[in-house]
Amino acid sequence: MNTTFCIFKTYLYLIIMNKRFSFLLLFLIGVYGYAQKLIANDTVTRVANIKNTTNGNEILFTPETPILNQIAGAPKAFYTHYWEFGDGHYSTEEKPKHTYKKTGDYEVKLWATNNYDTGKPPTTRPKKIAISEITTEYKDIASMDEDFILKRNREPVPDEEMVIVVSYKNPKDYTTNGKLYLFYNEHQYKANNFELTDTRTYHKEKNISAEGFAFTRNIDDDGTYLASSNNKFIETRTFSQDSTEKTNLPLTVANSKAFYKNWSLLEFDNMQPKEERNVFFSLKTTPEMLKDTSAIISVRGVYVPDANYDNHKVKDMEMEIVTSHDPNKMSSNGTFMNYRLVRFKTLKYKIKFQNNGEGPARTIRLETDIPEMLDKSTLNVLDMYPKCDICPKKEVLYSCLDTTFTDSQAIFTFKNIYLSGSEQKNVKEYDSTKGFVKYSIKFAKDFHKKKTKSRTAIIFDKNDPIITNYSTTRFLPGISIGAKVGVNSFSDLNNSESYFFGATLSPYKSYRLYWQVELMNNFHNYNTQTNVREEFIQDGAQGFRFLQRTTTNNSFKNIDWDIPVLLRYNLNNYIGLGAGLQNTISLSEKQEQSVLVEQFEGDLTDSPPFSTKENTTNETNSFNNLRTGLLFEATAGFARIGPSLGARYIMNFEKDFNYWQFYAIWKF
């Protein structure tokens, strides 16, 4: 109160003394206050609270979440929920009811994910639940259709926490001891995408150190993106996992460690037949996580049911990096590709969607861009949800997926289906309202090394389309080494003979504009212009005058290094242009100078000289004659890779050293 009064008094005084200054001060105070308000608003962390209603050992949990900040133009924002009950069980319902088996204290955790919201997900403090009596009989209901499943609570966003649930079941008819592996952080990405912050176990699983393993990075590129499962988070049918039982455990572990930087190993004991267990891994996504929001990353789980045998199962779970939680998304495994090997690569795309309506969708249409470098005729649908047959050519009444094409699009149409809406009554699982199409496609016969962008318009029945993000493909620069040989033509030098050979370095098969660096070994023999000087000499002793002519010749034998740096532009597959700078230094220079002195009687040189004297000197220098110039060139042939012929003009900043260069080059 006193501070406010003092400011008010000061302001009145300033009004009297200087009105202009006072208005400026008032403006600055207002701006400062507004900035403080913005800072305060930006730094306030949104919090979700856990509310519960207790009835003995049966608890009803209710989330208390903050108001959502709707993304403009997106479908209605909503929360999805993931609960851990502190006893090894979990739920994805909004308001789950859980029955505890034993008395005791349990720590309940909640992760609320804000879909179509502009802010970060709210944080939630764990809540202690005390169970003092058993009033409701506990029934352990089997829920796993497979022996080994990987799930996650949300897609990875840089600098956020996510949870991976590893569920495993004893398929044997006897008690077993076994192992669980979780591999993460792929070697192909320079920065780590995840940091393992917590592992929550409930059946005395032991964390075993796996440090000091020597690995190799040799692994098939096709193993980068394997099918995955997400079960209740996006339905068991949403992703299919490779559940084939494997028998060579050392090979699987070695290959996994060659592909992933980090791993966690757990050992478990006394698992009863058909018993189901869950392990929860908290992963903090790093700020350096790959920023490409159309990229696919993965984690891998390996389950060894019985440690006495090498029989095991492998699951790879794909995840799309996002900047905000949007169920409608397009992603690709073509984030960064090697252009040399791309002929052997099949691109895989995945289009995810969610029905946010108040009723079920009967027809879903996905209008997907197909870049011109891809061959639409090679498109193959790998998987989809809702799961259905591929439509025949005739009209049918059963559920099916139809694929048609335009000049620049592939159109996937789910016909006669039922996909629940997230706002529909009696729909408890938001993930049951999601679907996807996964397809592969190959490159066309002739395509250029350039970035592509694709996105999808998603249309539910007759509603307005929802536009996804752009899914991009990029090529690694690659290196192209070229062999170059040719001759130089110096018009201002006498008896010039010059030839060279060397190497070039440039990006592999660039599309239009690219850089190029060269190193040329240049052999050059030449003579400078003959210098003739005539003068009259008065001989004082003899008393007569005579004409003296001095002729000077210089010849050079040089070994030069040329280092051009230039920008090149390919007009098409056959014609290229370039311009840049060139530095030349003489690695070795041998100079021979010949001086001939002739003396003639009288004032003319018609008669033979009465006196002749010739002197020859030799001089050798190293690393001298640094010369710099501009260069301009054109090539014809195979501009991007292979052989071509070229002509280059070099304008040296030194007199008499402008010249033409004619060469042949072959890029590899």
Fold and architecture overview:
- Helix 1 packs antiparallel against helix 2.
- By secondary structure, the chain is mainly beta.
- The N terminus is likely disordered.
- Helices cover 8% and strands 51% of the residues.
- The protein starts with a helix and ends with a strand.
- The strands form 8 sheets. The protein has an 8-stranded antiparallel barrel. Strands 12-14-10-16-17-13 form a 6-stranded antiparallel beta sheet, with helices on one face.
- The chain is elongated.
- It contains 4 helices and 39 strands.
How would you briefly describe this protein structure?
The protein has 668 residues and is mainly β. Helices cover 8% and strands 51% of the residues.
Please state roughly what percent of the residues sit in beta strands, choosing from under 5%, 5-15%, 15-25%, 25-35%, 35-45% or over 45%.
over 45%
**Overall strand count:** 39
Largest sheet: 8 strands, antiparallel, barrel
The strand order across the widest sheet is 31-32-33-35-36-37-38-39
**Classification by helices and strands:** mainly beta
Determine the mean pLDDT.
Answer: 83
Number of helices: 4
> Unreliable segments (pLDDT under 50, ≥5 consecutive)?
1-29, 31-43, 211-243
- Helicity range: under 10%
Distance between the termini: 79 Å
